[in-house]
């Protein structure tokens, strides 16, 4: 493929086996040096609490500031990193950066940061030790973090995933099942997992304002979560209609472009301050009208 030699766009979409070993090796070394040359960036996207209108939590989303190709989203390198196992190194970087970010932003109201774990992390025997070492090094409590694991990553090896989740829960992490509704997990299995939160997959949320069946699926997931005693977050909230629908359904939190796009974490403190000020103005003018 010509694309191989050009922008290396294949890396997101084709399995490692289909590219020559030489290309894979050079890509891996490029990804390695991304870490050592500080080309990785941690972005944050706020999660809005629908009852209070406050933003106290955010999801950490990885970006690669590539010297030639610009700012790359995870789809361009996470799948490759997962296939090669290098994603474990990325997880370590993300977690350390999230510790620094929480230490800076907790004074501005950020109570918790969510981190995405991959299938590879769940079966990594060193995961627990490395996370604990980071917590100790930065002197940050585990309760400052929520770990998001996709439903399909759990279903890859449910028994092993469950054992890891139990350990992580005992350490004090909050646990969330990401992209819920797309991974074919049996509902019976769900009740055996020590999780606190379900994240409704954005494929349902994106269209819920226009598509009645998507709205019904979202409502069913919200009810299921509540019946199991879990909190619900909806991702992919792109408009005010979906936000209002979710609030009516009793969904606890919303995340999406309608609230804010992911931003460099250094910009997050300013964003929270502006958001809080805006909320205060809206409340004051609502009182005036009353
Ligand atoms: P995810 O964990 O489900 O993250 C949510 C994705 O939805 C993010 O894409 C976010 O930018 C996007 N999103 C949020 N609100 C909206 C919206 O209103 N509309 C639309 N169309 N999209 C929205 P992003 O940042 O490109 O990340 C994609 C996926 O890459 C993540 O999905 C996650 O699975 C993975 N990922 C991101 N960062 C990391 C990481 O540090 N480690 C690992 N293992 N995976 C990561
Ligand atoms: Mg996530
Ligand atoms: Mg998700
Ligand atoms: Mg997703």
Largest sheet: 8 strands, mixed, barrel
The unreliable regions are 1-10, 12-16
Note the beta-strand portion. 15-25%
Q: In whole angstroms, how far apart are the ends?
A: 65 Å
Summed over residues and divided by their number, the pLDDT gives a mean of 91
The helix content is 40-55%
> What is the molecular shape?
globular
Query: Which strand order do you get reading across the main beta sheet?
Result: 1-2-4-5-6-7-8-9
Radius of gyration based on Cα positions: 20 Å
Counted by DSSP, the helix tally is: 13
Ligand species: ligand C2E, magnesium ion
Instruction: Give the helix/strand class.
Output: alpha/beta
How many beta-strand runs?
Answer: 10
Order of helices and strands: HHEEEHHEHHEHHEHEHHEHEEH
Written overview of the protein:
The protein has 290 residues and is of the alpha/beta class. The chain has 13 helices and ten strands. The protein has an eight-stranded mixed β-barrel, surrounded by four helices. Mean pLDDT is 91; it is low at 1-10 and 12-16. Bound molecules: ligand C2E and magnesium ion (3 copies). Ligand C2E binds next to strand 2, helix 4 and strand 6. One magnesium ion is lined by residues 59, 116, 148, 178.
